[in-house]
Amino acid sequence: MSFVAEFNALRIAELLERSRLATSTDVQKSLVNGSPSLADFAHLISPTAGESLEALCRRSQALTRQRFGKVIRLFAPIYLSNECINNCSYCGFSRDNPILRVTLSVEDVLREARALKEQGFRNLLLVAGEHPKFVSNGYMAECTRALQAEVPGISLEIGPMETEEYRPIVEAGAEGLVVYQETYDREIYSRMHTAGPKRNFDWRLETPERAYDAGFRRLGIGALYGLADWRMEAISVAAHAAYLLRTCWKAQLTISLPRLRPSAGDFEPLTHMTDRELVQLVCAFRVCFPDVGLVLSTREPAKLRDGLIPLGITLISAGSHTEPGGYTGAGKDRIHRTEKGRIVELASGASEWASVPERATNATGQFDIADARSAREISELLKRLGYEPVWKDWDAVLTA
Ligand code: SF4
């Protein structure tokens, strides 16, 4: 049975009601339950648990130290392409947004990776919009193969593929696949995704299972907070995580908690999750999923990131760019503008466009980041907090 069947049978309304009505006794019991259930998770994300976070934070911190030690893995995203055939209302790369686009060549990708390697990174997340013509599995395999000799940790965040399409990418050296469901609310999902293959909710929901079958050894899931009720999303992610831990048990699982950021298209979030609620959610995930990696990106502001690091986070990005070529300017000579999905060559030529100082930028980014500190600054911060920054925790030789 795939997670789709389990998700369809999930009693979300009942769990939400449990959360809404949770008493402080319920919260106390769930906090110390050695094998927490989804009902315990619902208690820990309840308004009652949110009123006094100290006990939850303490438990989360203790579990994180016990399971992971005082180490934080660092990673950086490399955006390979911002071409996309989907319209996702909340995303700057949406097909219909009139933005500057480019797909990096393999040489461009290597240039970007080497710049990140200089900064210390050995874990890279290759990110791309969904466009089978530009971002095929052959292209992804080629990029991975080229990078693999230099960077031991390569994960992907790309449009969902078939198991067989993933296999050559895994064989080329990719170890992880990240796919966010965005929202687990079918009705909102259908409103947010108005064109393109991403409209298929179930196909996306089953992606981690196909990735696992293809041999990926790290799987990442999550919801994008700002679309549906955050507690509903969190319970769904928790159910998804529990399913994957049971059925894809050889893989390492990570959960991300991205909140919507401003982007091209000027989408306004439909719901709001406060900073305090984000802290509560991080801690609830840690208490109920002690061995799962929790990811925090540069979407969140510096002060909040600093506060979350000791509470349960195990993997963070730093110095991120969300546009292809963002680290080195690679691909700048091939930037084009698209309008409603059609390429409109820049009248005066891309290089001339790029030579105007205020436009001397790369392709358009996916969203604005909130924490612009460099990798070195984050690394120093971690050391000041008593943590060891981990740039590399894997090498292909370990699979030999
Ligand atoms: S969220 Fe992904 S699929 Fe949707 S428009 Fe953005 S890049 Fe494309």
* Biggest beta sheet summary: 8 strands, parallel, barrel
Strand proportion, as a percent range, falls in 15-25%
Numbering strands along the chain, what is their spatial order in the largest sheet? 1-4-5-6-8-9-10-11
Please tally the helical runs, counting DSSP H or I stretches of 4 or more residues.
17
What oligomeric state do these chains adopt? Answer: single chain
Question: Which percent bin holds the helix content?
Answer: 40-55%
Query: End-to-end distance, in Å?
Result: 32 Å
Give the names of the bound compounds. iron/sulfur cluster
- The global form is globular
Rg, Å, rounded: 21 Å
Find the count of extended strands (DSSP E, 2+ residues).
Answer: 14
The helix/strand class is: alpha/beta
Question: Kindly state the mean pLDDT as a whole number?
Answer: 93
Low-confidence stretches: 348-360
